[in-house]
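Notes continue from the previous slide.

Worked example: a multi-chain complex. Inputs as given:
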Amino acid sequence: MNLALFKPEIALAATAVLVILLDLFIKQKAVMRYLSLAGLVVAGVFAVMLWGSNSPALFNNMLAADNFAVFFKLLFLGIAFLVILGSADYENKFAGFKSEYYALILLSTLGMMLMSSATDLISIFIALELTSVSLYVLVSLLKDKKSTEAALKYLLLGAIASAVLLYGMALVFGTTGQTQLTAIAQSVMGLGNISVSGNPAFYLGIVLMIAGFGFKIAAVPFQMWVPDVYEGAPTTITAYLSVGSKAAGFAAILRVFFSAFATPFTVSHDWGIIFAVLSVISMIVGNVAAIPQTNIKRMLGYSSIAQAGYLMVGLATFGLAMSSTMVAESGLLFFLASYALTNLGTFIAVIVISNKINSDNIADYAGMGKRSPLLALALTLCLVSLIGIPPAAGFMAKFYIFSLAVQHGLLWLVIIAAINSVISAYYYLRVVKVMWFNQPTAVGKVPSSITPKIALVICCLGVLLLGIIPGLVMKLAELATSIFTF
Amino acid sequence: MDFNYLSTILFLPAAGAIVIAMMKGKDEKLYKWLAVVFTAIPLALAIYLFVAFDRSTGAATMQFQENYLWIAPLNSYYHLGVDGLSLPLMLLTTFLGFLAVLISWKVHERPREFFAWLLLLETSIIGVFVSLDLLLFFIMWEIEVIPMYFLISIWGSGRKGYSATKYVIYTLFGSALMLAGILSLYFTTGSLSMMDIANGGLGMVQTAMPATAIFWLLFIGFAVKLPMFPLHTWLPDAHTDAPTAVSVMLAGVLIKMGGYGMIRLCVSMFPLQAQQYAQILIILALVGIIYGAAVTLVQKDIKRLIAYSSISHMGYVLLGIFALGEVSLTGAALQMFSHGVVTGLLFAMAGLVIHNVEVRDLSKLGGLGRQVPIIMAVFVIAGLASLGLPTTSGFAAEFLIFLGSYTSGVVAHLNVYTIVAIIGVVLTAGYILWMLQQAFHGPVKAKFNGVKDANNLEKVYMFVMVAVIMLVGIYPAILTDVFNAGITPIVKLIGG
């Protein structure tokens, strides 16, 4: 019962509670923003101090504090930090609910951090619900028709997905008698010859769990909520959803599938195939559906479906790798880090521009290159990174994850993914074209306060840094995944 | 090496791009002079390296190397170096990069961004020729896409948005397959070093993945760039609609990246596959030569005519490469250099004509020889070099290619194929002379009476390029010696 190993979570929870309480007394809501940022920094410092600790079994084997958890904790804290920095002007739209906005973001982050530390099916589910419920409320905060509709869709579909996930967990529990992940792995080994016909309940449980998690990471065919929710939610929350909840979903998948279902090879081969197929259809559907979009948030929603497809290439690699040559999937973690920076940069630029022009239509971005060249350049850099062109981080991430895939014989998947990147170039470049080549419909610079600019600079610097000198973060990713020993 | 020449040459233009982009103020002259400085210094250094290159028989193949660990988890190194093959191509890039700045002296719309993108483009192309690490090579290959997109779609003409998007999608498609090939190569050999893989021989590759698959994946990327029929349809649009300086860079050095990649990656690392598929590739080269030349004959727009002629000339390069002989490879390399200068000059002249006369359609031009004699003289020389008149570099290059492929035994009936290719020369003469006759000869048209001839700056770069063409034409050994130093080890890898 070593609470000291959970100082980041405790700090974050305390900050959230403090924000809610102080809301009653303090009129100046900007204070809440700085308080949340301070809380995130404190939690981050605690998380950094935890690096290197190797306590896989805490709280009765429900939680772990290891490098994997610390990597994701730092990732989530960083994401929340950048999102809150970027909300400086946007928060004016949440009349009367500004503090709740910050508190809910902190609580959602807390849920995500717990999800990355959870080593038991039940604690994963609890953390997942904490994250999701906070997000349901956050999506509705704009209080207009679209926002409310989006929140309701998210809530209903999310509840169904959670139910499916729980059912899958129940089936796995039923066949193995365990909820703790490593205990499940041992139990699976003890089940003898596993096959689909011999253990249908077990396989059904895995499939349902993939469905439940697939909803979270916006994989096809569980992606129907994405365009509407991304369009209706406040743009800062869209940013947070696209990066944070996706990374949290992948953290949970990695834990569950790499700890519990990794061996024997027959099992991991089967779910590896499932992820490979999901990856292909996610990439294709995401990229093809993004082409006709005229609303930038919807377009970025479909783009995030496609990016989930690229990430699942990493999952397929692991699943289909022969046990003798299994390597930890550090490519996934590096991709998540680079994707977080890139997508947050894109969305913060979108937030700043939408604040001024009050529209989310791509056509209204015309002439941004003339009105605010630096802002347009930042958005261009992030879009180029999403396509995967050097020297941006997106290219390094794709190279890394694809090289690991090729090493395990998935050349066909890599070719499909590479061709999909080419297709995606069309719709990303369309935004670039509109910004730089079309004539502006209005004149005047796009103003913003200092904090979104700082956030945008951090994101762009991060994208360039990870693109040119990725060695350090790759090393951290490798250390983080080294906990999965085979 | 005492001083990192190659890194300096590589990053100076990019540094210049950043400096120019950060300049405030509307003074056009400042941007242009900055661009001149940041392209002249690499050119000077490149000329120095060309002179200092050790041509003696016992010298190292790769010279001026720089090798630092870059990304440990990927086993990737920051490895630069030039050998006899890449040194003249790098020199050509710095030369054309400098000239492109001079050619763009009259760009008045958003000059700051124009020169920034142009310099970034130059860095990327130099990077392709000097990198010896596959990841670095691929990154440099991809970096040129974004500057080209902006340069064509903002400062171009005609259907510029369409041409720019088509160029990007086509190039990215080729690079996507090339990336898959590079990843497969990395997987099967565990190394990203081009020299190690080439010297390690095919034994390294054959164990895990079919070498044929990797060969074709890599080859398609280069084939899109060269361009090889039938992957050539991006070229006429991109060349025609790009601004003049960009057309010069595109036709001059960018498409040579394709030929260089074929020699460096496909032929050196996969000699067996190169021999196996040489037959079909040579036939495709012939189609490119004849079909390219035939289509050129019916063009009316000057720039489109020169663009299609590039397809035909790159067909000679492809023929020379896949005849897989020492003479033909040297000829292909020399043709790459020569075509770079000649077509660069042709596009510069076409751009000048279009700028001064404001007419692109050949049927509407005529009799310009009286009004702009200097432009006509240089245009004629460039045209004659393009069709391969002796004493021009075009002749030296084409002669070596034809001699090499006629005498090569790699494919049956190669002598017959060579004769078919030589027919392309006749067609080239046809369209070049016809173009010159249409534009410059014939009755003088009164409406062109006020057209300005070349000014002093333009005369400078025109004569420099003509001088280079003549020099290489009269004394090709100045280049072929260097090329030979690089080609001989590659031919040894092919096996004689």
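Summary box: Chain A is about 75% helix and 0% strand. Strands of chain A lie at 55-58, 63-65.
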